[in-house]
Write a sequence for this structure.
């Protein structure tokens, strides 16, 4: 985006779109929202083209147990669940590709997209399901020591810290879940929270309080991350007393929430002040006709895998209806037809309604 707030189209300079591949539906992102949108669009014979982005499977591939996704009675590992999502979308003909959409031009239809800065794609509709990413505190040494003791993903990096003293900042469900996970490896986990009450759900609080390996340092903020080549400690401050001290830890996990991955769409789409894409009530329509948004890129309230999947389904149905209304495809299917589309590997029999 330019400083005057208008989209920057320089990425398209000199790019020839005459021979570019043109698709009915391009889906950006492969978390629960994107892959559910792909499943529904594929079953509508729209042959969706899906770009996986930098983290195929989205945030759930960095999590361990998912216990609250309906249908998995015994829980499931996040990466396994996303593998199931992917396979199901592919069964119906989803065209899943490596790569990230790096520039968009929504000024006219078909929309112009650039993939990995070099491949032009034309899209009649675009479904945005780019999700959200972990936030950091913004300390200089936090970024310098990222991957060298600083991490925003306990499930990815926790096992590197066996029998060590670790700290985690945050008071939400993520912080509790990750603190609990870290106790599998660490000898001690200090949870640093800036207030004296947690934001986390009751059940997660109770689990964390019941774990002897976890200590809580209330009203505490992190002022600096210490260490030359690896984390050697934290400079912390009690905001009630003003007292500063050093906490001797060798790993520092940040779990203070997420921000939507919507930078690419700034200047095109209406967003709230934190960057969540705004959609029209009860739909996934954005302010640009033919562009739909779903999942954590658009939802700052629920942010659950199941709600992301739900809005992904909505986006695919919205895109299908929009294409039909604009004459790009023949008619809108009936409710029965939604459920009856056979998988590519089926014998063509009527599917059980889902
Ligand atoms: P949340 O926004 O819920 O919590 C973020 C936490 O980080 C808050 O305690 C907040 O403090 C703290 N924080 C934010 N910014 C800073 C800062 N600059 N410095 C210090 N502390 C800061 O994010 P989560 O990622 O925890 O959860 C997001 C959503 O996902 C929630 O709806 C949650 O319920 C859900 N979730 C559910 C899980 C489950 O059910 N198993 C697991 C993980 C997430 P403060 O409280 O003072 O604002």
């Amino acid at each position: 985006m330019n400083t005057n707030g208008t989209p920057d189209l320089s990425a398209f300079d000199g790019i020839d779109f005459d021979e570019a591949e043109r698709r009915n539906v391009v889906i950006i992102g492969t978390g629960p929202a994107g892959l559910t949108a792909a499943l529904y669009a594929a079953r509508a014979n729209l042959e969706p083209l899906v770009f996986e982005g930098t983290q195929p499977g989205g945030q759930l591939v960095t999590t361990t147990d998912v216990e609250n996704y309906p249908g998995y009675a015994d829980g499931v590992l996040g990466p396994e669940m996303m593998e199931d999502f992917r396979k199901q979308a592919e069964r119906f003909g989803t065209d899943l590709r490596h790569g990230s959409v790096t520039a968009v031009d929504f000024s006219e239809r078909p929309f112009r997209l650039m993939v990995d800065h070099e491949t032009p794609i034309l899209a009649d509709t675009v479904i945005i399901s780019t999700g959200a990413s972990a936030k950091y505190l913004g300390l200089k040494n936090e970024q310098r020591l990222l991957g060298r003791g600083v991490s925003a993903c306990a499930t990815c990096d926790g096992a590197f810290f066996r029998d060590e003293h670790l700290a985690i900042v945050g008071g939400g469900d993520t912080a509790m879940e990750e603190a609990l996970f870290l106790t599998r490896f660490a000898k001690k986990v200090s949870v640093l929270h800036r207030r004296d009450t947690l934001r986390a759900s009751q059940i997660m609080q109770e689990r964390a309080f019941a774990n002897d390996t976890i200590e809580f340092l209330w009203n505490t903020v992190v002022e600096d991350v210490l260490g030359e080549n690896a984390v050697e400690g934290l400079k912390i401050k009690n905001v009630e007393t003003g007292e500063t001290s050093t906490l001797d830890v060798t790993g520092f996990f940040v779990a203070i929430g997420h921000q939507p991955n919507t930078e690419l769409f700034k200047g095109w789409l209406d967003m709230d002040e934190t960057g969540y894409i705004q959609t029209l009530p009860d739909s996934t329509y954005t302010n640009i006709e033919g562009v739909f948004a779903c999942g954590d890129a658009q939802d700052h309230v629920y942010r659950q895998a199941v709600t992301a999947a739900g809005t992904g389904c909505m986006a695919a149905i919205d895109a299908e209806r929009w294409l039909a209304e604009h004459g790009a495809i023949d008619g809108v299917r009936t409710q029965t037809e939604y459920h009856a589309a056979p998988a590519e590997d089926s014998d063509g029999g009527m599917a059980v309604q889902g």
